[in-house]
Every structure is written in C-alpha cells, then in structure tokens.
Write a structure and sequence with these properties.
Elements: H1 2-6, H2 10-26, H3 35-61, H4 66-78
Length: 91
C-alpha cells in the first residue's frame, strides 16, 4: 500500500479511481431533476438569453440608450477620465 501512496500524477490518479470503482458501483444512483423542473429551467434560461440578446442588439444598433446612460452615470460618479473607460461603450 505504501507504494500506491507514493505514486503521483496521472498513474496515481488512475489507480485511485480504479480502487474506488467498486464502492461507487454499490451506491444508489443520484437520480435527477423532475421533467417539470427541467422545462422551467430551460424556459427561464431561454427567456433570459433572449432578453440579453435584445438589449445587446438594441444597444449596438443605437436604438437602446440605457447602457450609454449607465456608462455616463458611472463616469460621473467615479470621476473617470477618457472615452467610456468604465467598459460600457456607447453604440
């Protein structure tokens, strides 16, 4: 056993995984989320992605001025110098 402990790197990792495999095989599976939970999470992620894409495209096209106003407010508040150095560049 002392030789096994001294092994390092990929060989030691592989041997440790092989030694732990029988213990993992005997345990119960973890299960998973219910189908309803998966649907809700997927819809929420899709809605958030759509919202962020709409904000980004509106900003880039110049139709949405919110990010420019936030950038100007941050510049004034933090007394930043230069062209939108806070990272929120206007379209």
């Amino acid at each position: 056993m002392s030789k096994l402990i001294r092994l390092a790197g990929p060989m030691g990792t592989a041997l440790a995984l092989l030694a732990a495999a029988p213990a993992q095989a005997a345990s119960e599976p973890a299960g998973g989320a219910a189908t309803g939970e998966i649907v809700i999470a997927t819809l929420g992620a899709g809605l958030l992605t759509t919202l962020l894409l709409a904000v980004g495209m509106g900003h880039r096209s110049g139709r949405l001025k919110v990010l420019g106003r936030v950038a100007a407010w941050t510049e004034d508040r933090e007394q930043l110098k230069g062209p939108r150095t806070c990272g929120l560049e206007p379209a």
